[in-house]
Amino acid sequence: MAYFDAASAAPLHPVARQALLASLDEGWADPVRLYREGRRARMLLDAAREAAAEAVGCRADEVVFTPSGTHAVHSGIAGAAAGRRRTGRHLIVSSVEHSCVLHSAEAFEADGGTVTRVPVNRAGAVVPSEYAGALRPDTALACLQSANHEVGTEQPVAAVAEACRAAGVPLLVDAAQSLGWGPVEGDWSLLAASAHKWGGPPGVGLLVVRKGVRFAPQGPADERESGRAPGFGNLPAIVAAVASLRAVREEAAAEAVRLRELTERIRARVARTVPDVEVVGDPERRLPGIVTFSCLYVDGEALLHALDREGFSVSSGSSCTSSTLTPSHVLRAMGVLSEGNVRVSLPPGTAEEDVERFLDVLPGLVAGVRETLGAPASEPAAVLTRDALVVDALGKRCPVPVIELAKVFGDVPVGGTVRVLSDDEAARLDIPAWCAMRGQEYVGEEPAERGAAYVVRRVS
Amino acid sequence: MAYFDAASAAPLHPVARQALLASLDEGWADPVRLYREGRRARMLLDAAREAAAEAVGCRADEVVFTPSGTHAVHSGIAGAAAGRRRTGRHLIVSSVEHSCVLHSAEAFEADGGTVTRVPVNRAGAVVPSEYAGALRPDTALACLQSANHEVGTEQPVAAVAEACRAAGVPLLVDAAQSLGWGPVEGDWSLLAASAHKWGGPPGVGLLVVRKGVRFAPQGPADERESGRAPGFGNLPAIVAAVASLRAVREEAAAEAVRLRELTERIRARVARTVPDVEVVGDPERRLPGIVTFSCLYVDGEALLHALDREGFSVSSGSSCTSSTLTPSHVLRAMGVLSEGNVRVSLPPGTAEEDVERFLDVLPGLVAGVRETLGAPASEPAAVLTRDALVVDALGKRCPVPVIELAKVFGDVPVGGTVRVLSDDEAARLDIPAWCAMRGQEYVGEEPAERGAAYVVRRVS
After folding, report:
1. Interface pTM (ipTM) of the complex?
2. N or C: which terminal CB in chain A sees fewer CB atoms within 10 Å?
3. Partner residue opposite B8 with nearest CB, options A33, A201, A221
4. How far is A160 from chain B (nearest CA, A)?
5. pLDDT tens, B69-82?
């Protein structure tokens, strides 16, 4: 049994558990009340706020506790954008932000605002000069994650913060994935985070709004948390969250070295032992515990289930594992292969043996999934029309279109082209990615009666 | 040590504590994930939803878990009003709703909507015919609490629901105070509640949206909880909340009888042993555990502190205990005395001895506070001008204006009037209430250079 999905949620840290139990007894009352149970709750809340501020590197009165990281992001973006409404209605995000940031951006657009989505390079990072180029006189707010949740790539937050500061635009940093590892570098204005990513209980987010940042909370008024997070606070969980943050920080430096070695091992070994694999994300500037790779000709869901049967819990950005049947927006923005995608995110304390066992079973599991999918189609998929080969993969889901392409590619003469007809959203990403991996030319996409035709030229 | 403020927050029920511990181990993973930890979390979540639905009396797919009762109310009102935007932009609330409902109404007004606030009678209840009279063709939503949080009065929900149903208007019931005692009667459309009121942990609210109710969630999109409550769910707390609801419901019938006897004892004994006291709220149609009274010539905060020193934790709707220095909007809407206000809300399991001890010490504590306040002012407060007495209580806070009125009232001839100059918001409520208690005539309010002049005529 090995849980390798810490980037989704981490099990409760033992220190958090202890703190939760203690504060369930001491911190259940309403901290605004004047009697002793209320005063005791208030003292716990104040102490938690001080400790959180110290871990973030800010003032205690800049910290707001919210019910989740998503609430912190939603309230932070809405409040900061409204606070600068007179400056303008332009918002900047990177194209690989967490969905809660992108959903906020969509809501902002629906409300009449304009959004620039800054692209990323193939490693998943924004380029500071490109980000800076998106700043406009009417930019109300800029958002950038500290590190990506799907591929682990760290963003150049300090450089972007400097550009934003020079332009007088506040920068909101979504630090959900990194705050357990250390404070966020640079001169940012707002910060959001989520306790269950660092071993705190669910139900606690952090929103930090630096003094001097214009902020107009949206939605119905409420007196709690400086009017920035409505509802009765979840004090026992807040106390536990902060205790956990302090505890993981104490272990962070040593554990980062250890996990970095383990993920480096996965990066290297997977590339060597699994054929047709693309390891994605920045090899250097990345979080210690996350490593992500995509396997050509593999169904992500089938691989997840195969890993689950062997006792490994991982997640995937493949289209077949999402409710909308579209590949992860992060992989799309990076332009990397999305089929057979696996994200391994190791929780602190992961045993080396578990990683070794994972590396031992993975090649066989990938081969098994490929074998199942590789069975020849009942009807011939490719027909020669005029001068070009056409692969009809309509109605077939990822990774079948790429498998069918690969199967006929040997029949294409060098210089010849093949058209893959597909109505699967993942093909738009995976066929170009296959070309890049195989050194073939991706010519482009043509409209078709159903779906699209993806044109590939054989160059070698 | 006796905690008598269950209407604010109840300590964690032992069953909730057990359930929380168990589900911290079993339910920390993301329930949308496909691996075993995720599937286990999903099973816990599904079971909790079924159990919550059974306790509410609705379908499981009508239940949404939110981060607090306040979130349930905010999202419920915003979503239901937006869902019926084409019908109109009129909202009905009672004037004694919880502040989170009234804050939603204010946000709705700020957004261009119209709000009718239905008044209550002196017992704190709306009159069904009056509520029905507020329904209009453009009414998008009506809101009514099941029972009042400050005075315990139950509202005629079934009758109001029937009127709303006849008019085709959905009714949202804020059941925060009553859901632990039993399901809400009548044919309502939406329901909101808060787990920490029934001994569940903080961090869990319930929003129920009946099938067929038009509902358009507001704010950024999110896939979780049918798109009606964004953010990673607080599953361990949800499991604990539902376990607690089931547990308190099993004990509810017997405990209601016991607490009702205790609060009846407080109602009767306080009226007998404390001079110049007004016991407020409906004597019959009320929650089992809440009893509220106001003491003339008493500073609410001083009385709270005196009770706290004796080991009793209660709350107050007096102006001096609020951050805004205004009396509770509930007491104002009822038109009852707000000075020296005490709300006693007994948690299930309250010991009879504690109530007896409270009743033993209360008269002495009230007398003590009155003695402190009753010391004569250093300058004469009343001067005879023309034909009427004027009491200058400018700059004096509740309960001093009423004390000064009482001190000079003996000098007023029958048929004569006295003007109390006051800039304290509480005087507007407490001077008429004093007249009602004393059988004197409250003539009305006159504008004054500072504050207002409250005119009282001596009739006996």
Report:
1. 0.90
2. C
3. A33
4. 25
5. 999 999 999 999 99
